């Protein structure tokens, strides 16, 4: 059995958990307020899921999903995620996260910041450019005509390969953007952001993305 540690149990974390348990993964999910606040969610998710603290979710994970507001990145235990693939769903909303100059200037990427914080993990971007509700409703089997595609990026080939495999199980094709330094192409407000697109359309949208918006 593969255990996914999900850090963040909001819109995206809960949706990834729903699809993951359907697919037969075990899920350990945590938030900032403590496992007791996730009682309803784990009942809904069923026996494959349990709630834990965020760092316990990291420790229990074969691989992890980090899905919290960017402003709280420093509060995440890097130790609990060391040596693991971490799928990073976060986006930069300066209205929520406060201004981060390096992002405003186009000199950094959100997932690059996550990789810097989680220096002993292998971070891959994933699920940042799909609306939470659509994670469980827009996937289709491999080979479906006009299948929806999602992008990933990582500095670690095994991490992007893991995301591609998970995307396929969730019902999506993958476009690999390459290293995290190129991952701005699928950040907020770029052409590929939260639109339904197939692989060819996604490639076109990534290519025409402006560095700053
Ligand atoms: N909503 C979307 O459709 C969507 C789509 C793509 C990407 N995203 C991005 O994905 C990330 C998550 O979005 P969301 O909509 O799921 O957010 P959300 O609904 O606000 O949920 C955030 C979750 O993160 C948890 N959290 C916050 N700080 C934490 C910490 N220090 N340790 C552990 N857990 C912590 C929160 O726990 P508490 O409630 O206990 O504080 C909550 O469960 C954001 O960066 C967002 O921009 C969102």
Describe what you observe in this structure.
With 213 residues, the protein is an alpha/beta fold. 32% of the residues lie in helices and 16% in strands. The radius of gyration is 16 Å and the shape is globular. The protein has an eight-stranded mixed sheet, with helices on both faces. It is built from nine helices and eight strands. Helix 2 (39-45) links the parallel strand 2 (26-30) and strand 3. Bound molecules: NADP nicotinamide-adenine-dinucleotide phosphate (NAP). The site of NADP nicotinamide-adenine-dinucleotide phosphate (NAP) has 26 residues, from helix 1.
Provide the succession of SSEs: EHEHEHEEHHHEHEHEH
User: Residue-averaged pLDDT, rounded?
Assistant: 98
> Numbering strands along the chain, what is their spatial order in the largest sheet?
3-2-1-4-5-6-7-8
Oligomer category: single chain
